[in-house]
Amino acid sequence: MSWKTKSNLAWLGALPGVKEDEPLASRTSFGIGGPAEFFLELARPEAIEKALDGCRQRGIPYLLLGAGTNLLVADKGVEGLVVRVVNREHEIDGTRVRAGAGLKMMRLARIVADANLRGFEFAIGVPGTVGGAVYQDAGCWGKEMREVLVEAEGFVPGKGRQRWTAPALELGYRTSALRDGDLKGALVVSATVHLQRGDGEEARQLMARLTRERSETQPIKTKNCGSVFKNPPGDSAGRLVQAGGLKGARKGNAAVSTLHGNFIVNEGGATAADVRRLIEHVMAEVKRRFGVQLEPEVEMVGRWR
Ligand SMILES: Cc1cc2nc3c(=O)[nH]c(=O)nc-3n(C[C@H](O)[C@H](O)[C@H](O)COP(=O)(O)OP(=O)(O)OC[C@H]3O[C@@H](n4cnc5c(N)ncnc54)[C@H](O)[C@@H]3O)c2cc1C
Hints:
With 305 residues, the chain is of the alpha+beta class. It has helices at residues 6-13, 45-58, 105-114, 130-135, 177-180, 200-217, 237-243, 272-290; strands spanning 19-23, 35-42, 62-65, 71-73, 78-85, 90-93, 96-100, 117-118, 139-140, 143-144, 149-156, 160-165, 187-194, 196-197, 250-251, 254-256, 264-266, 299-301. The longest helix is centred in the C-terminal third of the chain and has 19 residues, at 272-290. The chain binds flavin-adenine dinucleotide (FAD).
């Protein structure tokens, strides 16, 4: 039975601050995708938790949204409720830092450098939020979230607030219990990381150098979602795409970057269907030529049929 009963629609429509048919394209780094049927942007974890509990009780589908930097939203949009998580508080206690899930990783990288803490410089390369980074163990330049994470506070609809140690979250290369395991559908409320005391100026200089180097090798100023594919064991997806002669391949207004093979760029007006067809084309070609099955790192969400 569809969840779209009169009473569920009335409940969604009465959520404080809710918007209907709210465009999502501008809330993703790809700049692509249809609207959310119902949309909330919430900073108070209690309000997010209440909305998610209600959805669970009523069988209403929901999607948590961070900065939208790892999502391909379908052209037909997203069914049910989309909740954008924007709690951005942070607390520094010695070498421990607790950050709200909605805080951007890049912002936190600067905050902790200014507090003379080291070990979080890698986060300057991750444009998503702390919640999104925990969700799939984001990482950059050989360092990942799991190396600094102590614990996360979370919420499981129907079960309430929980505290997860890093091992309980089963973080691994672009995976976790939240993305692929028992905690699917759970909310990350905040995360605590453990860093080292050090020279903030050195951290800032390192971040500036890494950012400069990256802008020369990756199309980071275009509309994209970062790496489209996970690196297969012992190899790099970008290398395989390049070796397959697929740089510059295109479907509609979506093109494989000529700068880096693991990036797909929305050149303006690309649809989600264009990007998906291009992803499938690249996967098929890499499989045919090298026998390697690439796996998307980007998540495809919403109504594809
Ligand atoms: C230019 C560019 C460069 C990038 N470089 C890197 C890189 O070097 N390394 C890397 O790892 N990634 C990189 N990315 C990808 C992206 O930034 C990361 O995957 C990031 O962790 C996604 O966070 P987000 O807040 O944007 O999540 P979103 O894209 O909004 O969501 C992704 C998933 O996380 C879930 N989620 C978000 N917030 C929460 C929450 N609070 N609780 C539970 N689930 C949540 C969503 O439901 C969704 O399933 C890059 C992206 C871009 C555009």
